[in-house]
Write a structure and sequence with these properties.
alpha/beta; five-stranded parallel beta sheet; three-stranded antiparallel beta sheet; 9 helices; 49% helix; binds adenosine monophosphate
Length: 213
């Protein structure tokens, strides 16, 4: 399947994407994960992105389009892809549209995960992430078996730098200003599916019905 997952930080895009990749071998492409790996490795991209990320701001569109222009042409995308955290601005959505046309790729849909702000705030402040494999935990609802240690790979599980209360509040404001308008953009294009996303499993089942698997 070829889908865009839209939704605020903490709406469950990553969790849903991971559940969906297990179904048909589509790859999850998370721009946030790609950028965090670049920061960790200290690459040129990481150096350019780090300060924006720490402050909860968006990385410049051109950097993101350079990454995605290459990523979408890699072999593992042949089976399908789930875009998690991209596009995030109208210029990114327009550039993606052009790129997909050039590569002759058609999307199965754009899924908007709708979650109330209070649920998001609670999820983000209690979320923990493995620095090695990116697995997501929650200190309340899905803690690691051993505190601070990833169940999947044994890596260190931490609170992300951009999940302090201040950065979260900034990220939600940035989402409202720059990313929420994408709902209207894709509604106009006619391929938006709105899902009340309080439960990830309900989201996955609705998406399966939508794409017919
Ligand atoms: P995420 O893990 O998707 O919440 O992304 C973490 C951070 O990475 C965001 O707060 C941005 O600073 C940056 N980022 C991720 N995806 C994008 C994107 N498509 N456009 C701009 N910045 C992004």
């Amino acid at each position: 399947m070829r889908l865009i997952l839209l939704g605020a930080p903490g709406a469950g895009k990553g969790t849903v994407a991971k559940l969906l990749t297990d179904i048909d071998g589509s790859v999850q492409i998370s721009t946030g994960d790609i950028l965090r790996a670049a920061v960790k490795e200290g690459t040129e991209l990481g150096k350019k992105a780090e300060s924006f990320m720490k402050a909860g701001e968006l990385v410049p569109d051109q950097l993101i389009m350079d990454i995605m222009g290459e990523r979408l042409q890699e072999d593992d995308c042949q089976k399908g892809f789930l875009l998690d955290g991209f596009p995030r601005t109208i210029p990114q959505a327009e550039a993606l549209k052009e790129l997909l046309e050039k590569l002759n790729i058609q999307l199965d849909g754009v899924i908007n995960l709708d979650v109330p702000r209070d649920v998001i705030l609670d999820r983000l402040t209690t979320r923990r992430t493995c620095v090695d494999c990116g697995a997501i935990y929650n200190v309340k609802s899905s803690p690691t078996k051993v505190e601070g240690v990833c169940d999947a790979c044994g890596g260190k599980v931490v609170q992300r730098d951009d999940e302090t209360e201040e950065a979260i509040s900034k990220r939600l404001d940035v989402f409202e200003e720059q990313t929420a308008p994408l709902v209207g953009f894709y509604q106009k294009a006619g391929n938006l599916v709105n899902i009340n996303a309080t439960s990830s499993q309900v989201v996955v089942d609705t998406i399966k019905t939508h794409v017919g698997i």
